[in-house]
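>> received
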Amino acid sequence: MFFNTKGRGVTQRLFTTIFNHHQIKLLLFSIVTAFIIIGCGINTSENISPNPDNLTSQTRVVKHAMGETKVPLNPKRVVVIGGLDNALALGIKPIAATTLLYDQYPDYLNSKTQGVKKIGVNNTANLEKILYQKPDLILGLNWDADIYQQLSQIAPTVLADGDKSWKEWLTKFAEASGKTETAKKLLKDYDQRINTLRQQLGNRLTQTQVSLVNFWNNYTRIYMNDSFAGSIIKEIGLPRPTYQDKDKIHENVSLELIPQLEGDVIFLIIGGHNPSRLKQFTNHPLWSKLEAVREDKVHEVSGDTWISSWGIVGANSVLDDLFKYLIDK
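>> returned
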């Protein structure tokens, strides 16, 4: 993951005295916001002020990767700076969010992101743009720990632990937004789909080695157990080829290592790839010797979902592909 601290010269001095009087809280929050405006270089002629809803007495305390935060019971203006897939699945329509790459939301979320303002790319959230949105809750991952204090001065901020699974991110977002029951239902339905897939595979469940190969720009990668799709394959119980059965995310491979792509079925993870590089591999004599190639068991799937989604919408899309190519076909 990449961090960018450029332009984040915002004061991090915190007030240490706790006041209970509501008007004093508002005054203190306004002063802190003024510091943020100065630090971010915001044009104060826009007359930006903190959202009073941030300071409502109707709150709950949420424990998260950065500590504890009081969040509003019914947040209305949510900003998401990581984990957008899970937020949308919970029914949260953020007012703004960071994007994955190229300042675009992934194609598979297009129908859910209409009207959601862009506030930078993941791990390079634009503090100035966030402040303009006047959020009452900010959700993200602790990959943005370096700007947590600034974010917290804008609105209550909950950062899930980026080292844990996407399921735990979903659960933490649900806790922060008051949607715990929704998360339980989403995960229950997901588990039921996995059980159905296992049952329909029957004996093939333990006999179908799944190879995950990604072509992206100028490299070719094998994705392993700790990748997003790899973790789903492992959860289902489908075996991996020996060389790919490792607890890491990926390894790059060159033409002479094409035999390491072998599996009973190969999923070609495509997205942002270099067509000439893909052609270079598929035209190589070693490619034609792969059993999955000879038996027409090579299937193209989306990199947006199989690699980058890290959320339950993407996970269900991976399951859709597995049903399509392992069961329906």
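>> The CA atoms of residues 126 and 133 lie 11 Å apart.
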